Amino acid sequence: MDHPYASYRSLFPVLASKIHLASCSQGAISKTVSEAMEEYLNSLLTTGVNWSQSIQEVEKAKKGFAKLIGAEPNEIAVLGSVSDIFSTIATSLSFEKGKNKIVTTDMDFPTVGHVWLAQRKFGANVSFIPSQQEVIPIEYYERFVTSDTLITSISHICYFNGFKQDIKAIAEIVHRKGSLLFVDAYQSAGQVPIDVKKMDIDILAAGTRKYMLGIPGMAFLYMKTELAEKWKPRVTGWFGQANHSKFDIHQLTPAPGARRFETGTPSFISAYAATAAIRLLLEIGVENISSYLNELAQFTLDYGQEKGLQVVGPLSADQRGAMTAFYAENAGQIESIMKERNIIVSARNDVIRIAPHFYNTKDEIRQAIDELATVLNTK
Ligand SMILES: Cc1ncc(COP(=O)(O)O)c(C=O)c1O
User: Fold this and answer.
1) CB of 186 shorter than 6 A to ligand 1
2) DSSP conformational letter for 223
3) Is 182 close to ligand 1, i.e. is its CB under 6 Å away?
4) 23 lines ligand 1 (CB under 6 A)
5) Domain membership flag for residue 292
6) 256 and 183: one domain?
7) How far apart are CA 154 and CA 180, in angstroms?
């Protein structure tokens, strides 16, 4: 397989000395992202104040993200992390008797469970769908989502083993049962196509530092306009107000659309990074990225098994995102050994995650798997 994006590799300085396969944790930083961050710092160094430029950059980042997921910019809010978004949404809900069930899964990122469990004292009844052989069978949604379900909160791609869910099919089930659908897309945004309208997603969250190739400090919240208008956030602040430049301490008037969920000054430098990073993703096209990554994922699965590694999660790339998880006792230690050998992979509990992006080659994956197999002493 040729590398269709070979010409982009020089944009990522780290690739000259490392095999970077950790986009599920922190994507590689491009020179354009680094220049954008420098632009932010330089404007502070030279002009002293860069407030309006920075606000414009936040708007550009929102626009870019809206395009990436098929939404309108006014359906996007920025917060500091995906955890913040979950707390903002959860604390805006009221858990009425007969409509107080939260359905999530045991494959979601722990923050998701933590936030929902924290709502139990306010009346939430939290139900975890158990995984079965490392996936969530779609028929479980028919069983677990019931008429008293207020919100179904699931991830598009599992952080732990790369399992990808059929969001459109799940949306049909949960909406038929009268539940909202909240999708954690942190492991999918930037690597697989997302169209919130076609997938019929009500609420979506994604941060910028993984496959979106930015840095920590910023996460995007999508909420359908018609839905947002009905919500009165309890986690709030001046950025969430209709007219925040009025500085009126007595007025609490939520901004139109998703912006009402914003709180205070966002991380401007993260917005500069996000705008540049998303621009690159849009230039290449997420459809193109996704089909290349699908080939890489299948190669990772096949070659890994050939070398005696044990795949955790589905064996077909079509049921996964780019990331492949291999079983490894003491994964944290293995991650450090691989790092010493200039191969960046990511550990979680007892798995090593290999997560390429468009800038990676098949040969890099081959080298990483060879090294992992040696370290694990499998072959
Ligand atoms: C799927 C998923 N959701 C949420 C998070 C947490 O994101 P944050 O640290 O921005 O709260 C992560 C982080 O790794 C993740 O992989």
Assistant:
1) yes
2) E
3) no
4) no
5) yes
6) yes
7) 11
> CA 157, CA 347: separation in Å to the nearest integer?
17
What is the number of other CB atoms lying within 10 angstroms of the CB of residue 196?
23
Q: Does 217 share its domain with 337? A: no
State how many domains the chain has.
Answer: 2
Residue entry with tokens 């209709």 = 242
pLDDT per residue of the chain (379 residues) written in tens, 0 to 9: 689 999 999 999 999 999 999 999 999 999 999 999 999 999 999 999 999 999 999 999 999 999 999 999 999 999 999 999 999 999 999 999 999 999 999 999 999 999 999 999 999 999 999 999 999 999 999 999 999 999 999 999 999 999 999 999 999 999 999 999 999 999 999 999 999 999 999 999 999 999 999 999 999 999 999 999 999 999 999 999 999 888 999 999 999 999 999 999 999 999 999 999 999 999 999 999 999 999 999 999 999 999 999 999 999 999 999 999 999 999 999 999 999 999 999 999 999 999 999 999 999 999 999 999 999 986 5
| Tokens of residue 250, six digits | 């007595």
The DSSP secondary structure of 344-355, one letter per residue, reads: E-EEETTEEEEB
- 203 and 170 part of one domain: yes
Domain final residue pick, 281, 302, 324: 281
Query: In terms of Cα–Cα distance, which of 221, 187, 245 is closest to 87?
Result: 221
Sheet strands (E) in 189-289: 203-207, 219-223
Q: Tokens standing for 18?
A: 């490392």
CA distance 55 to 64: 14
DSSP character string of 170-237: HHHHHHHTT-EEEEE-TTTTTTS---TTTTT-SEEEEESSSTT---SS-EEEEE-HHHHTT---SS--
- 193 CA distance to ligand 1 centroid (A)? 19
Ligand 1 within 6 A of CB of 81: yes
Q: Which atom of ligand 1 is nearest to the CA of 25?
A: 14
Question: Domain range holding 116?
Answer: 38-281
